[in-house]
Amino acid sequence: MTGEDNRERPRKIVHVDMDAFYASVEQRDNPELRGQPVAVGSPAARGVVAAASYEARAFGVHSAMPSVTAQRKCPDLISIKPRFDVYKAVSFQIRAIFAEYTRMIESLSLDEAYLDVTTNLKGMEIADHAEEWSCLRRAPAR
């Protein structure tokens, strides 16, 4: 056995961050919202944006922004009250897909996780392509 055989394989960690998650779920569930500037959060005077769609972001709207400021930046902004039960259910569905590849999942929030895919359950070399994936951007919903 050579020294090379005794070395541990380097770990392969994938970071998954589902950007604009709440807004994307709303656009998925209501096709009329697709392509529209959407903010999930409270539209009340003291409300805050929890998530903004890419269309809303084009106007400078972002999470943690006061709703009044967001509406000023984007007059056609569609404000939607959060449905955390739905986001949680979608997050669990996505986590179930992750679990097909690895049992080593570190959830940070409903829309973010680290996956250790050094040895994955499907035997696919998915992490070998992580560097290629790092340059990918969100594809538009169809």
TrEMBL record:
Residues 13-118 form the UmuC domain. Its cofactor is Mg(2+). It is found in: Cytoplasm. Keywords: Cytoplasm, DNA damage, DNA repair, DNA replication, DNA-binding, DNA-directed DNA polymerase, Magnesium, Metal-binding, Mutator protein, Nucleotidyltransferase, Plasmid, Transferase. GO terms for biological process: DNA repair; DNA replication; error-prone translesion synthesis; SOS response. GO terms for cellular component: cytosol. Its main location: cytoplasm. It holds the Pfam family IMS. GO terms for molecular function: DNA binding; DNA-directed DNA polymerase activity; metal ion binding. It catalyses: DNA(n) + a 2'-deoxyribonucleoside 5'-triphosphate = DNA(n+1) + diphosphate. PANTHER family: DNA POLYMERASE KAPPA (PTHR11076:SF33), DNA REPAIR POLYMERASE UMUC / TRANSFERASE FAMILY MEMBER (PTHR11076). Belongs to the DNA polymerase type-Y family. Poorly processive, error-prone DNA polymerase involved in untargeted mutagenesis. Copies undamaged DNA at stalled replication forks, which arise in vivo from mismatched or misaligned primer ends. These misaligned primers can be extended by PolIV. Exhibits no 3'-5' exonuclease (proofreading) activity. May be involved in translesional synthesis, in conjunction with the beta clamp from PolIII. This is DNA-directed DNA polymerase. It comes from Rhizobium leguminosarum. The lineage of its organism: Bacteria, Pseudomonadati, Pseudomonadota, Alphaproteobacteria, Hyphomicrobiales.
